[in-house]
Amino acid sequence: MLMENETKTAQKIDSATLSTHGKLSMFNEGLKSGLANGQKFTELMDQLIDTTDGETLLKAARALSDFKLDSAYVTFPHQYQNADYYLIFMSRLLSMHDDEHAVLNTRTHSESLYHVFNELSDDYTFLYQIVDNENGGAYYHEQTTGENLFYVHLERRLLRFNSRAFTNLFINKLLLKGTGVDQINTVLATLINFGHYLRDDFGFNVDFNILDVDNAAKYELREANLTGEVVDKLFVTAAQHDYMLQNSPAGHGAEIQLPGSLTIDIFDGGKPTEAKWVLTVHDPDQRVSWFDVLLHFDFIRDWYLENIDSLEIKADPLVFA
Amino acid sequence: MEKQSQPDLEQNEQDQPTRALTDSLQQKLDYLATLRQAITAGDDRLIYELIDGDHYHQALLNEEPNATRNAQVNLITDVHPAISHYLSTKLIDYLAHEYPFFYYEEIQLGEFQIYFGNWWDRRRFGKLNVLKVAFEFSQEEFNKLQQTFELAASHKRFNTDGIQRISADNDQLQALIDAQGDRDHQKDDLRQQLKENGQRNSLFDSGRIKEERQQIIDQLTKLADEDEQANNAHATMKDNEAKILTLSKEDTILAYEKQAIETSFKSFENFNERNRSLYVDYLTTLIGKAQVNADGE
To answer: Of A55, A79, A103, at which residue does a domain stop?
Structure first.
């Protein structure tokens, strides 16, 4: 920042008003600060790619994610995008925890990075897209489908998963087109682990959203005031699959017991004056999320997708409008 | 306490009607005292005998009707709701075992609404008359269930025909939508014919030409009607889908009800028979329990 101001000032003062020595001196100072900036950059790069200390890694990633390498006097022909440092950070953090499923690739003939997963075809490439407004942060973005799977803000230590993107990519594009549940689960596990590491290592505030396995998780439905008709549909389809939708003990709503001591509730968890329909998933080991239910129970998945306008799990509206 | 002996002392001095009155009042006091004691002692069998002794004697002891057994029952009609509430505890315990699929809600003191099952949107199935130990099923709901059992023989559900009819409607509407292109072609043809018809001018054949013209116009009108129907078809189809859902839901509920009855009673006939003998069955159980208690003492 300081360097930028200096060069601006330098440009303002008309060169004609300066002596030759003054001009040369200004040029030299511009080079020095540009080189120092480059030097600073390489130090951060060293940290990003080699440090074994988590906080150092996060700090380096944060600095690099909005680092301006070029100056008026010194520009660098070979550069990565700011978004790429998010990818490097993510890969480094995962590999510090021995998770190598997200493979970091470079494009030929250019300095740009992307993730692929061995479990998925190479048609699906993942990279970060920086948010270009005062909020900052970046989306983890799948390029073919354009889905933003999660939002991360390194400075504010925030991570938000997005139910719609996960449903569209992993269910509509992958599961329903023949990708196996095991493969999908491996990719999901890596993304979820990334959330855990951010939370546990750095104290990030993480909303796992549709992927939350906690029994206490209440997945909020898009249609807060759900019509009975949608529940009626589940009742009828469940009966056709030999499951009974029962009255919910949790209040106005319904409950269904699935194999593996799995209990799904859909009920109005709001106030008498303001309905707020939610879904909950209970299992003894707290290992099952609503997304897992969608992956494993066809009739529930069909019901969810057919009524997605009402049932879609709400993601953080601040970052997923 | 001392006062209680006074009526006896005075009895000889009373005239006959007064004596009759005091006797009558004494009987009432005795009746109420016995009822009070039965409630304190938790003797539900005795309470049932007291609130409708005539029915009790006929149903359980095969005795002839005798209205005098119920001489005092009018004394307690105002507290029937409270008695019903009191008796409901043991009765519902018993029913929960015999009719595991019924659930009860006390909508006001002593008044119990029956819910059939614990599934989503279970039906209100009528009321439980605790004093009479009888179900008073909603006739409409009961009839649906009865028909469900009857239709099962021909592998049909209560709404099978209704759903088929509406589905057929929807198929027809879909066909109407799909045929839009055909209709547009036909209309073009007919308009062309109409034009040609208008250009023909024959002195001798004018009647036939007019007739032909009318036929073409009729066909165009018919096609326009169909276009109109096709335009409204989406809304109608959506309504129909909602109707089908309602009917499917009802079928699902009825299937659960049927299944519940078959699990507990094997057949609808057995279920009805059990309902008819519910008073005798329950009172017999109470007598049996009293017997066991007496033997135990």
So the answer is: A79
